[in-house]
Design a protein that fits this description.
single chain, alpha/beta, Rossmann fold, 2 domains, 5-stranded parallel sheet, 12 strands
Length: 379
């Protein structure tokens, strides 16, 4: 067929948390773009920066952070000051990756009204992935992430969007129901999201993998910046209430290995570890690729451990653990959950990682094909 007769690719404008300044958010946005490109679309990320993201890392933002609310006033001030200083490298790391490696709209948007007034051109609009429908931190929903700016009759879809929680009050449920009524296709990342939507009357909803799993392991292997060191335990702990670091120290001591700890802020330094502060996104992936073993309480830490076929000890955080358990259940890897390192060490020796890799590969292929089929019938 001559090039002039080729059908033009359909464009997709993506609304996601691409500037949330964490590795999971950056990598899921990057992966969504890569998957859609491979599926024959022209994706572009709407460079949306509402106030809570625009002010990220500032003293005011850190002072009002939900995790700082229960501290006494002088402690809140001190924490906010130290965090605002420490955030500079973190913000620089992610802005450099986002601005150089993601296809962004030429214009940056700051509100839903601005999106309505100057709508990005696209054949259809997409929510997700990530916790774009979670109001835990913001206390209220941002209608932009529900594509409220899209004109009537627009084609709206979601790819692996997440609520991040299993229930909402009556007012929030009514808001969600109203916003999602315009969607042509819905897919969510957790089984809890399926249950929520079915209770609202949405029966035709797909359970979809996080986009980082819709991209091939070979792609991630090429993406990774390889490390020169051969033997280390990788520690990636996001939640202060998990026992991840202690488990990693016990395992490393038992096996005579050093620990590399990925942190994003200087105050998160962990004793007895080589602390790596806000590494480049390619280096972050490379640290998982090169590790002997991984200890993490992070969903995307779990994902990349599985992608690179690493023994991983998963300590479940008290909040937002359903996405981790949904994934582990799907690939028959519940034995990777760690509450006691000695018990986990004994158990992991008997785990057939070949079975886990086969289940993961089959699941990824199934969801890749499902999403490709759904998208082929849209628009």
């Amino acid at each position: 067929m001559r090039e002039g007769n080729l059908m033009p690719k359909k464009s997709v404008a993506i609304m996601t948390y691409h500037r949330a300044y964490n590795y999971g958010a950056a990598l899921q946005a990057y992966a969504t773009v890569q998957y859609l490109k491979d599926a024959g679309f022209e994706p572009i990320i709407i460079d949306y920066c509402p106030n809570n993201i625009l002010g990220y890392g500032t003293f005011r933002n850190q002072f009002n952070d939900v995790s700082n609310m229960n501290s006494a006033f002088p402690i809140r001030v001190a924490k906010a000051f130290l965090k605002s200083l420490g955030n500079r490298k973190r913000i620089s790391t992610f802005d450099r990756f986002i601005d150089s490696e993601m296809p962004l709209t030429n214009k940056r948007y700051f509100s839903c009204q601005e999106l309505k007034d100057d709508l990005p051109e696209a054949d259809f609009f997409c929510s997700g992935s990530d916790q774009v429908w979670n109001n835990y931190y913001t206390k209220k929903f941002d209608p932009s992430y529900f594509l409220a700016f899209a004109p009537s009759g627009s084609t709206c879809i979601s790819i692996a969007s997440s609520f991040g929680k299993s229930s909402f009050n009556e007012e929030d449920s009514a808001f969600i129901n109203n916003q999602l009524s315009k969607y042509t296709y819905l897919s969510v990342r957790e089984t809890s999201g399926i249950k929520l939507l079915r209770e609202m009357g949405y029966s035709d909803v797909d359970l979809m993998l996080d986009p980082t799993l819709l991209v091939s392991p070979d792609t991630w292997s090429r993406f990774a910046k390889d490390t020169d060191e051969e033997s280390y335990v990788l520690l990636y702990q996001l939640h202060g209430d998990s026992d991840t670091a202690n488990c990693a120290r016990a395992y490393a001591k038992q096996h005579g290995l050093k620990i590399k700890s990925i942190i994003t802020m200087p105050y998160q330094t962990k004793p007895g570890c080589q602390n790596i502060i806000a590494p480049d996104v390619h280096e972050w992936v490379g640290l998982f690729k090169g590790a002997n073993c991984v200890f993490t309480d992070s969903f995307h830490g779990t994902v990349f451990s599985l992608v690179f076929n690493k023994p991983v000890a998963v300590t479940l955080p008290s909040h937002f653990s359903t996405r981790i358990t949904t994934l582990l259940n799907a690939v028959g890897a519940n034995d990777l959950i760690c509450s006691d390192v000695q018990e986990w060490s004994s158990r992991v020796q008997n785990i057939d990682f070949t079975d886990i890799q086969r289940e993961l590969a089959n699941l990824c292929a199934e969801k890749q094909d499902l999403l490709r089929d759904r998208l082929s019938h849209i628009g």
